[in-house]
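I hope you will forgive my troubling you with a question about protein structure. The matter concerns a single protein, recorded as an amino acid sequence and a row of backbone structure tokens. Please examine both parts with care and let me know of anything in them that strikes you as inconsistent. Thank you for your consideration; the sequence and its tokens are set out here:
***
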Amino acid sequence: MNNRTLTHWNVFLGETRLAYINTKRYGINWLVGTLNLLLFLVFIQLGIYSFQNGISRGYLGDKIEILILGFFVFSIIGMGISTVSSRISEGASTGVLEHLMLSPVSSRYVLLYSTLVQFSFGLVVYLLLLPVSMLICRHFFTINLPKLVFYAIPLWLASCAAGFMMGALTIIYKKTQNFANLMQFVILALMVLPSCPFSPYSAFPISPQAAALISAVGGKAQIGWGFNSFIYLQSVAYLLIGMKLFKLAEEYAKTKGILGQY
């Protein structure tokens, strides 16, 4: 392992420790957030099963699975978009943004590793709470875990791309909360576009990744290697574009002397 790789690994471990420390320090807030997620999963299932009169149980199970997957997709996208901008806003308001920019591996990679840690942690929590919600509701269904992870990765990459674009705005304008709220409606629009299989909408970020996950995992559709390769390559391409825009915004902020100005 060369020195550069070792440095990146140490930064990733540092972000993992930071996430653990923050979770431990603000444990009550984390527990309440986890409880909120569990209750949401429970009430999704209870709400759907309240309409079970005259409807087959198998049909209801499929609808619940798709609805829960839709919530999972929305959560991943929101996490990928908000993590970068939230970290920058917090750093600017607390006076530690300059420290982030002085990282030996570039701030972009620090933020990418931070988002990766949040994604991994959120995925584990979601997969642990889902069977708990099934036990509470006494209704069970299966989700193909390997497929879920396979399609969640490009979705996370595409979401990070949008996150870095949001971060580029945040690093210059500092406060972008209202724009982030507007992005929720954009996310919903992208999720419902018919972008799987190939269509003109497949060129948009996030949309084909979200459609592929819901179709393959929820709808049990068989998606060919061509489209799978496309969503991975498109996600990486958009991520590189997002990171490049973030770098340009960072250089602009440094040139204008507004990096830490809040």
